[in-house]
């Protein structure tokens, strides 16, 4: 295994040197995994956290501060990634609980029919959207991902995400309003 100084590591990562990046991964991933397991209590999720940290390190290589020891940076990034995931899961839990506490309206057959028709119109309008536009809309509205998360997952800019969401909302609004 390469033994590199902090300066060599930072310069290597900034210059996108795959050998340096691989050496850093091999050296620090096990300790990062141990940190992540303590927070998320799940080995698969911990592996995901470590992968996310290294992916973000690679993406933001030019922003790496050479004054900060890389092991401290990676440990802090791992903790922050875990805490962000935990906060997101807690928000989703609260939302789910709140939805479960909402009173279920007693529906007669007429309102059930109206609901089914509206849902069918919505699905039809959604199917008419361009593939990427629909994918972004569903990731945002159905999966609850933030625009930044969508941009990362689809490897597109955040402005493109916003443009797709705007387009989707306009088209859905027009399609659903113009229905009899």
From TrEMBL:
GO terms for molecular function: DNA binding; sigma factor activity. GO terms for biological process: DNA-templated transcription initiation. Keywords: Sigma factor, Transcription, Transcription regulation. InterPro entries: RNA_pol_sigma-70-like, RNA_pol_sigma-70_dom, RNA_pol_sigma70_bacteroid, RNA_pol_sigma70_r2, RNA_pol_sigma70_r4_t2, RNA_pol_sigma_r2, RNA_pol_sigma_r3/r4-like, WH-like_DNA-bd_sf. Signal peptide: none annotated. The keyword Transcription regulation applies. It comes from the Bacteria. The keyword Hydrolase does not apply. Residues 121-172 form the RNA polymerase sigma factor 70 region 4 type domain. Transmembrane segments: none annotated. Residues 25-91 form the RNA polymerase sigma-70 region domain. Belongs to the sigma-70 factor family. ECF subfamily. This is RNA polymerase sigma-70 factor (ECF subfamily).
């Amino acid at each position: 295994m390469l033994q590199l100084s902090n300066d060599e590591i930072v310069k290597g990562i900034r210059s996108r040197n795959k050998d340096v990046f691989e050496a850093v991964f091999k050296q620090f991933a096990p300790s990062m995994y141990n940190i992540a397991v303590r927070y998320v209590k799940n080995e698969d999720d911990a592996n995901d956290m470590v992968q996310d940290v290294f992916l973000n390190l690679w993406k933001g290589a030019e922003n790496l501060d050479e004054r900060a020891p890389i092991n401290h940076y990676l440990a802090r990034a791992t903790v922050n990634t875990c805490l962000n995931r935990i906060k997101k899961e807690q928000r989703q839990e609260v939302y789910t609980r709140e939805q479960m506490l909402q009173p279920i309206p007693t529906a007669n057959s007429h309102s059930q029919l109206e609901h089914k028709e509206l849902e069918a119109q919505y699905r039809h309008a959604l199917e008419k959207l361009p593939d990427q536009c629909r994918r972004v809309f569903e990731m945002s509205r159905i999966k609850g991902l933030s625009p930044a998360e969508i941009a990362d997952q689809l490897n597109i800019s955040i402005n493109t995400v916003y443009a797709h969401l705007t387009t989707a909302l306009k088209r859905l609004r027009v399609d659903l309003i113009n229905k009899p």
